[in-house]
Automatic annotation (TrEMBL):
Record-level Gene Ontology MF annotations: metal ion binding
Lineage, uppermost ranks: Bacteria, Pseudomonadati, Pseudomonadota, Alphaproteobacteria, Rhodobacterales
Keywords carried by this UniProt record: Magnesium, Metal-binding
CDD domains per UniProt: RraA_family
Protein name: Putative 4-hydroxy-4-methyl-2-oxoglutarate aldolase
Annotated InterPro entries: RraA/RraA-like (IPR005493), RraA/RraA-like_sf (IPR036704)
A Pfam family that the UniProt record links to this protein: RraA-like
Binding site for substrate: 88-91, 110
Record: residues binding Mg(2+): 111
Required co-factors: Mg(2+); a divalent metal cation
Amino acid sequence: MTPRPGQTAMSALAGLGTATLGEVAAVRIVPGDLRALDPAQECVAGAALTVRCTPGDNLALHLSLAQARPGDILVVGYGGDLTTGPFGEIMATAARAAGITGLVIDGCVRDSAQIVESRFPVFCRGTAIPGTTKSCRGEIGTACTIGEVEIRTGDLVIADRDAIVILDPGTVGDALAKGERRAVREAEVMDRLRQGETTCQIFGFA
């Protein structure tokens, strides 16, 4: 198994953001209808802990909170259900206390204002206030699929206001090197634009 990247690498991935990584690395892009709950959400990066929940039941989420490691991002397959909110303020508080980096869920959440105020990163399909039962243990650590994208425990999740992308942990070094080179080039271009050049001049467009 590929070693889990350290916090320095995770922070560097978050610093690059999804748009840069999407240009330079072989990322898998989660469907765009999952969005940041907080419109001002900064980029976050962490290792996926996958959770399969039965729609309408959130016991598996409670169990995953107890099993997650600091730096994990919970990636929850919830079947795209929009009728219930299996994650709310109490779970967000528990997740932050456990050092969990964020939540990506193929479904809705509740207590959105409180979650945003707590600054716990959540990426979801929307909000729904009906509650859930707690009787199905679901599956933790089993690969889940959101849209057409399969996500495995240990995959790297980078998420911001633009997108959610999944990166194979074995490609981190290459992705960082290429991403950092691209970031330097883009900074140089923007500096030249501020000095009065046009994009046509810089890129040689006719």
